[in-house]
Amino acid sequence: MTIYSLYIYDRHCACVYYQDWHRTKQPKRAGEGGGILNAVSQAVSPLATDNAAPTPSGFSSPRNTLSSTSGLVVAVGEDPVTPLPNPTEHARSNTLPFDEEAKLVYGVVLSLRNMVKKISGRDEQFTSYRTSSYRLHLYETVSGYKFIMLSDAATDGLRFILRQIYNGPFLEYVVRNPLVPMDSRSQGVDNDYFRASVDRLVRGLSVFN
């Protein structure tokens, strides 16, 4: 099993946290005014500029930048959704900025969730989907936070890992931490203890590559 990345979205649909493990190239920085939160921007590429290679952080290792070339999904009764990027492809000149990447991931999840509800009823839950290149895993909390993880296609369901991240590090270092502003429209989740704890949890998996 190979885990590529973790995205956390709040109830306002904003990406408040990002972490990756197997990218061969850091994500492309969002342009000015792209809407990416400060904590997420620092996690994506702390010291990167357009003319310099990004400096890897202590908790993330390079992996391929996502590009919209595979995984087309069309939701019932809605407009076609832009294909979700393939996390294992080599970086190309049309690599998406991270703010567009985050919107793409969230849009696919939202459309698939709505499709499942329309086809199977409100009691049915959307938890993951798989393509020939990757698998997306979703865990949604009662408070509206969405934990999304991308892995290789052969990986079994990782919803239990996302639940562990929420019930463990997220509750301990984010929800119960008075210094971490919840529902911040400008900062996001910026907590080194939380990032290190998530990293240890993922790397501690016996099947983590």
From TrEMBL:
* GO CC annotation, single: TRAPP complex
**Known SUPFAM superfamilies for this protein?**
SNARE-like
- Tell me where in or outside the cell this protein is found: Endoplasmic reticulum; Golgi apparatus, cis-Golgi network
For this entry, list what GO says about its biological process: endoplasmic reticulum to Golgi vesicle-mediated transport
Is this entry keyworded Endoplasmic reticulum? Answer: yes
Keywords, A to Z, come to: Endoplasmic reticulum, ER-Golgi transport, Golgi apparatus, Transport
Q: What is its main location?
A: endoplasmic reticulum
The organism's superkingdom is given as Eukaryota
Family recorded in the similarity comment = Belongs to the TRAPP small subunits family. BET5 subfamily.
The record describes its quaternary structure and partners as: Part of the multisubunit transport protein particle (TRAPP) complex.
Listed name of the protein: Trafficking protein particle complex subunit
